UniProtKB/TrEMBL annotation:
SUPFAM superfamilies: NAD(P)-binding Rossmann-fold domains (SSF51735). One of its GO terms (molecular function) is oxidoreductase activity. The lineage of its organism: Eukaryota, Fungi, Dikarya, Ascomycota, Pezizomycotina. This is Short chain dehydrogenase. It comes from Cylindrodendrum hubeiense. InterPro entries: Fungal_SecMetab_SDRs, NAD(P)-bd_dom_sf, SDR_fam. It holds the Pfam family adh_short. Transmembrane segments: none annotated. GO terms for cellular component: cytoplasm.
Length: 267
């Protein structure tokens, strides 16, 4: 049984999740990091890459196969962690997906776009958290994080900030993927999930947040280059923000959506 803090990060073989693992490996604090990946081979490849990119003698990383859209996969991952460690100190719900393209293109396929998005970002995240909650409650200092989006803010949307323009009439034509109704509404739902988990786990002294890393150049939606053209920043920024929450730097903002600039996001 390890005395290191055990951190489980879903969707950690690439993108923000990978950068979160890398940031933790650069910390003076020792961790045992469970790098969640839908493919064990890809997870193990990520572990090997991290070994090349970092020099850390006090933290360890281990790949764990988990697909949060598959209940059996979640249960297998839970049993593995339960049998080997008996606890988790930090759960990071990082795995997410975006299936939106443009409004006019997605119109004929909205049901599938929304169902697939919510299955990952909302239902999958909820089930994973529920199944792993008993492990989290075995920790002496449990933390629970959800990776949301700056585009989930209802306040900003109501103020019509950074929205594409649509001409009068029908059908609506747009070459902008910025609207992303499926993705953005799923992340707004995720914010509510965070708040409800804060209520459920309040008497267990679990610290709970949503993390808004901002627009980052990942493969979300399958187009890193498109995100870069939209001004996306390096994913390491998101990894560092997750580490800040894990290491107590954002404790004053518990129960809120914390941002990389030190602020909090309006609901």
């Amino acid at each position: 049984m390890t005395t290191k803090d055990i951190v489980f990060i879903t969707g950690a073989n690439t993108g923000i999740g990978y950068q979160a693992v890398k940031s933790l490996l650069q910390s003076p604090k020792p961790y045992h990091i469970l790098l969640g990946s839908r493919s064990l081979l890809k997870g193990e490849a990520a572990v090997a890459k991290l070994a090349e990119e970092t020099d850390n003698g006090h933290s360890t990383v281990e790949a764990v196969e988990i697909d949060i859209t598959d209940d059996d996969s979640i249960q297998r991952a839970f049993q593995f962690v339960w049998d080997k460690f008996g606890r988790v100190d930090v759960l990071v719900n990082n795995a997410g997906a975006c299936f939106d393209t443009t409004f006019d293109n997605d119109g004929k396929n909205f049901r599938n776009v929304f169902n697939e998005t919510y299955n990952v970002n909302v239902a999958g995240t909820q089930v994973f958290t529920y199944v792993f909650a008993p492990l989290l409650l075995k920790s002496s200092s449990p933390r629970l994080l959800f990776n949301t989006s700056g585009r989930s803010s209802l306040a900003k949307e109501a103020a019509h900030e950074q929205v594409p323009k649509f001409a009068p009439g029908w059908p609506k034509q747009s070459d902008s993927a910025w609207l992303a109704q499926g993705y953005r509404s799923s992340k707004a739902a995720l914010n509510m999930i965070m708040l409800t988990w804060q209520t459920v786990l309040k008497e267990d002294n679990v610290k709970v947040w949503c993390i808004n890393p901002g627009l980052l150049a990942t493969n979300l939606g399958g187009s890193k280059s498109r995100l870069e053209k939209m001004g996306a920043a390096d994913p390491s920024i998101g990894g560092n923000l997750i580490r800040q929450a894990i290491e107590g730097e954002r404790d004053a903002d518990m129960g809120k959506v914390v941002c990389r600039n030190g602020g909090v996001q309006a609901w």
